[in-house]
Each structure stands twice: as C-alpha cells, then as structure tokens.
From TrEMBL:
It is a single-pass membrane protein. It comes from Monodon monoceros (Narwhal). This is Selenoprotein S. The chain crosses the membrane at residues 36-55. One of its GO terms (biological process) is endoplasmic reticulum unfolded protein response.
Length: 182
C-alpha cells in the first residue's frame, strides 16, 4: 500500500499539464487500439512477412553475385562454361543440319514424283489416252467378250469405231507387255 501511495504522490507532484497530456494520450491510444486493433495486428504481421521475403531474396542475390565474382576469377570454370556453351551450340547446329537434309530429301522426292507424273502424262497423251485421269493408279485392262455385229457395208461411223477399238486393244496389250519385260 505504501508503494501505491508513493505512486499517487508522484502523480500528484507532477504538474497538472503533464498528467492531462498523459490522460489524453492514454484515451487516444486506447480508442485507436479499440477501433483499429485487429487491422494494426494484421498489418504488422503482413509487414513482417514481406520483410522476411525481401531479406531472403536480397541474401540470395548477394550470394549469387559473390559466386559469380568467384567464378569469374577462376579461369578453369570460365573455360569449362565456354566449352559447354560451344558444345551446346554445335549440337543445335547438327540438329538443324539434319532437319535441313530431311527437308531437302522430301523436296527431292516431291520433284521426282512430279517428274514421274509428267512422264506418265506424256506417255498417256502419246498413246491417245486422257491425261486428266489419276495417273498414279496402274491401268489394268480387262477383256470383255462381246458379240460383234458386222456393220453395214456403207456405214463409215461403225467402221471408224471398230478401228479405234482395235487400236486401243493393241496399245493396252503393248503397254502391259512392256511392264512385264523391263
């Protein structure tokens, strides 16, 4: 009790202006904490986390700079790094060259296919066949047995048709035999 009386005496011995200032501060801080206390606590926690993250990043950045400086001073590490870089570039160039060769081969095959189609078209035109058909499929001739009617002695159209059919049969037979005997 004696201690409390001493504290009370000390408060009473202080000037009235100072005690009023302390009460105002106590009321102001108390009302501020009562109103915004949780916001202040969460803000402090958030600031703490942000400073910790920034501090770790800053520490890592400094460490990397020190490692780079140490590596730059060691010529063996620099030489190894340059050799690895040159090897990676060479590997990439080889892969690119292989892709270019594949592309050239595809172009050659396409050109050869076009040339072969032009030759087949030219041959079919020389034989009197239509060149607009699909030249990739092999042409197979089938023999049909049809009873032929003799044309009338003055029918020139029938005679022309008969001669054209005979010529086609001869050409297709010659074409098939040329495929069998290269």
């Amino acid at each position: 009790m004696a201690a409390m009386e001493r504290d009370g005496d000390q408060l009473s011995t202080r000037p009235a202006l100072e005690t009023e200032g302390l009460r105002f501060l106590h009321v102001t801080v108390g009302s501020l904490l009562a109103t915004y206390g949780w916001y202040i606590v969460f803000s402090c926690i958030l600031l703490y986390v942000v400073f910790q993250k920034l501090f770790t990043r800053l520490r890592a950045l400094r460490q990397r700079q020190l490692d780079r400086a140490a590596a730059a001073l060691e010529p063996d590490i620099v030489v190894k790094r340059q050799e690895a870089l040159a090897a990676a570039r060479l590997k990439m160039q080889d892969e690119l060259n292989a892709q270019v060769e594949k592309h050239k081969e595809k172009l050659r095959q396409l050109e050869e296919e076009k040339r072969r189609q032009k030759i087949e078209m030219w041959d079919s035109m020389r034989e009197g066949k239509s060149y607009k058909g699909n030249t990739r499929k092999p042409q197979v001739t089938t023999l049909c047995l049809v009873k032929e009617v003799e044309p009338a002695p003055g029918d020139l159209d029938a005679e022309v048709h008969r001669l054209v059919d005979e010529a086609k049969n001869l050409v297709s037979v010659a074409f098939d035999t040329s495929k069998m005997n290269p």
